[in-house]
Design brief:
The complex is a heterodimer of chains A (316) and B (241). Chain A has 316 residues and is of the alpha/beta class. Chain A has ten helices and 14 strands. Classes of the chains: A alpha/beta (316), B mainly alpha (241). The interface between A and B is medium-sized, with 29 and 23 residues.
Chain lengths: 316, 241
């Protein structure tokens, strides 16, 4: 659906993008992650034809952004980071303007206006000047603008920035409700945003893609080991020695516990870490208070990847 | 074309969405009628030469203030990014904006039609010269607006756009002045007269005040306007790279 290949872009001497490639299939939602200034917005601006790359190509539905920009724009709904709003218009006038500029008219336009206003929860403020709206309503008006022509592809640059938790939840629900029908790229530097909405992430840092895949898959690669938390109402030293004896355990870290003991055990993904601890506990007849695998959070993965990317750069 | 019309409607409405438009029009009318009337009874002639004669100077201040918001405002609001990702060409967006500003100017200019009515009531003027004078006024405004649209596209804030626009319009005006041309001729023989003939607007505009609408003068105004609008479009397209 969207194929980004070898994208490079410089602003003056600053290299904003360096050989960025990724692809998204129809109906997929992609979280585009990275610290501020990593190149997320620049990439999105190139995909939406606002900027041209120095090098590389972007194909949307097989259509090249440089050769047929208007064709690409027709298929895309775009919410830029700075929400593009005319403050002197009310929501109705503004959405009508964008709808007409995108070639809608008559009953089709009315139908889409209705849908967008409903989906983005704008009904109560519909006739209010945009300049008087709260930040949350402005953001949602921007989102409605991106949806007005019912595009197959949505490109949302930081759709939840500056919103309160409840509003974030609302936008997240909206994005989720569009899943399956539309291909969506949304960027964020807030990690909690991603996992509730999608599985697939691309992580960018200093203009380079440093990771691309499902969150679980990425954590495996980034962290290298699986981890299991074990807790028991027993003497810590004895449990520790026994655990260290297991071949699947490569690392063992004692953790503070109110009563008894608690450990974080790590081992290679291929070995059955959880199973071998379970068997050990059964053999020794331990009464465990805790035993579970702890998947890495996106934060862990992200920081580890960024750190590694920066480390590599320092070495090089 | 449909796209230009949509942009035109929004831009034209935007002028009247704020009180500034009305203040502008009133100032424009007061300045023109005031300047004209101070000389009218002294001259004792039933014509509009005084009005049309002042126009190139009055418009140097008025027009860039009309066109300043065209692009600079969009850049400030972030709507520039919206416009440049709509499924229409940059030239269509530009035309919609430019024509909206031109229409606004025509509204203001229509307000001065009380002057010819008064002159007709008071005397027996040359209506042909008045008509060609208005043609000149429209063309002059169209050219200044082209320049103003261009400078608005260069700038991110409206104040810089208006200052640059005023300077550019003034340059074009002063190049047509005979004294300026001969001074430049004094430094570089031939250059002053060359600039006066090719770029200076007084000569072309003067002819219309006298009642002559010549193809060459039309070509000057239309051609130069198109040049600035083309430069504007190219500049905005070039920003992508």
């Amino acid at each position: 659906m969207i194929e980004v290949r070898g994208l490079s872009k410089s602003f003056g001497t600053m290299k904003a993008l360096d050989d960025v490639s990724f692809r998204i299939n129809r109906g997929e939602i992609l979280g585009f992650l990275g610290p501020n200034g990593a190149g997320k917005s620049t990439t999105m601006k190139i995909v939406t034809t606002f900027l041209a790359p120095d090098d590389g190509s972007v194909k949307v539905d097989g259509v090249d952004v440089l050769e047929h920009p208007l064709e690409v724009r027709r298929r895309i709904g775009y919410l830029p980071e700075n929400v593009p709003l005319y403050l002197d218009m009310n929501i109705h006038e503004y959405l009508t303007f964008v709808g007409q500029a995108r070639g809608l008219s008559g009953s089709r336009l009315r139908e889409r206006l209705d849908w967008c206003v409903e989906a983005c929860g704008l009904r109560s403020e519909y006739r209010k000047n945009i300049g008087e709206l709260s930040k949350g309503y402005k953001q949602r008006t921007g989102l409605a603008q991106a949806l007005i022509h019912d595009p197959d592809i949505l490109i949302l640059d930081e759709p939840t920035s500056g919103l309160d938790p409840l509003q974030i939840l609302g936008i997240r629900e909206l994005i989720k409700s569009l899943a399956g029908h539309k291909t969506i790229i949304f960027s964020t530097h807030i990690l909690q945003e991603v996992s509730p909405v999608t599985d697939r992430v691309v992580i960018i840092n200093e203009g380079r893609i440093i990771a691309d895949g499902a969150v679980d898959e990425l954590s495996r690669g980034a962290m290298g080991t699986n981890r299991v938390f074990v807790g028991a109402r027993l003497d810590g030293a004895a449990v520790e020695t026994a655990l260290r004896g297991l071949p699947a355990v490569s690392e063992l870290k004692p953790l503070p516990a109110p009563a008894g003991c608690r450990f974080e055990a790590r081992g290679p993904f291929d070995d059955d870490l959880l199973g071998s601890i379970e068997r050990l506990a059964r053999e020794r007849d331990w009464r465990l208070t805790e035993l579970h695998e702890a998947p890495y959070s996106l934060e862990d993965t992200f920081t580890s990847l960024i750190r590694r990317a920066r480390g590599l750069k320092e070495v090089a | 074309m449909q796209g230009s019309l949509t942009i035109f409607r929004r831009e034209f409405a935007a002028y009247f969405n704020s009180p500034i438009a009305y203040i502008f029009i009133i100032l424009f009318l007061v300045a023109n009628a005031g300047l004209f009337m101070t000389g009218f009874f002294l001259n004792g002639a039933a014509d509009l030469r005084g009005f049309f004669g002042n126009l190139p100077i009055v418009l140097i201040l008025f027009i860039p203030a009309v066109s300043m918001r065209l692009w600079a405002e969009d850049k400030r609001l972030g709507t520039f990014e919206l416009l440049m990702t709509l499924p229409m060409r940059t030239v269509d967006v530009m035309l919609g904006k430019y024509l909206a500003a031109l229409a606004f100017y025509l509204v203001a200019l229509a307000g001065t039609l009380t002057l010819p009515l008064m002159v007709i009531a008071l005397g027996n003027p040359d209506t042909g010269a008045m008509f060609s004078g208005y043609v000149g006024a429209v063309l002059l405004g169209a050219l200044y607006l082209g320049i103003g649209t261009f400078t608005s596209g260069l700038m991110r804030d409206q104040i810089s756009a208006v200052i640059l626009g005023v300077m550019a319009c003034f340059l074009l005006f002063i190049l047509g002045d005979g004294a300026v041309a001969s001074t430049i001729d004094g430094w570089a023989p031939g250059l002053g007269s060359l600039l006066q003939n090719f770029l200076g607007l007084s000569g072309h505009y003067e002819m219309m005040l006298r009642g002559v609408i010549a193809a060459g003068d039309l070509a000057y105004f239309v051609g130069l306007t198109v040049v600035f609008l083309a430069l504007n479009t190219l500049w905005l397209e070039g920003r992508k790279y």
